[in-house]
Automatic annotation (TrEMBL):
One GO BP: aerobic electron transport chain
Record's protein name: High-potential iron-sulfur protein
Family that this chain belongs to: Belongs to the high-potential iron-sulfur protein (HiPIP) family.
Annotated ranges, domain High potential iron-sulfur proteins family profile: 53-122
InterPro entries in the cross-refs: High_potential_FeS_prot, HIPIP_sf
Organism: Fodinibius sediminis
Keywords: 4Fe-4S, Electron transport, Iron, Iron-sulfur, Metal-binding, Transport
């Protein structure tokens, strides 16, 4: 009977640890999700807030590599496939000269193209 009792106690304690750890993890994820999502630091520049779509001065080196990896070009080689009619394109906001892309940061030409072009859903 000692073995059964100690086994029961062992599993009960394990269960309590798992439940407690899960609650802690869920709580931290919840609190992390409560952030506004906007960084109020003044040196956090919007990479789409540029005068020209070829101004990449606000784009990090890592994002420039990512753009290159996706095969982004400023002018499409395929007339029917351009950023403007791609499902991944982010149209420019009011007052912005350029749109963006959900795959990488930085300004995107409407006439641009990358190898991940996806037709817009109609």
């Amino acid at each position: 009977m000692d073995k059964e009792y100690s086994r029961r106690v062992f599993f009960k304690r394990c269960f309590q640890q798992v439940v407690g750890g899960s609650a802690l993890l869920a709580g931290s994820m919840f609190l992390g999700g409560c952030q506004s999502g906007e960084d109020s630091s003044p040196d956090q520049a919007d990479p789409l807030d540029v005068d020209s779509c070829d101004d990449l001065s606000k784009v990090s080196e890592a994002e420039l590599k990512k753009r290159k990896g996706f095969g982004y070009v400023e002018e499409t080689p395929i007339p029917d496939k351009k950023c403007e009619n791609c499902n991944l394109y982010i149209p420019p906001k009011e007052g912005q000269a350029c749109g963006g892309c959900i795959l990488f940061e930085g300004p995107v030409f409407e006439e641009g193209y990358c190898t991940y072009w996806a037709p817009q859903e109609t």
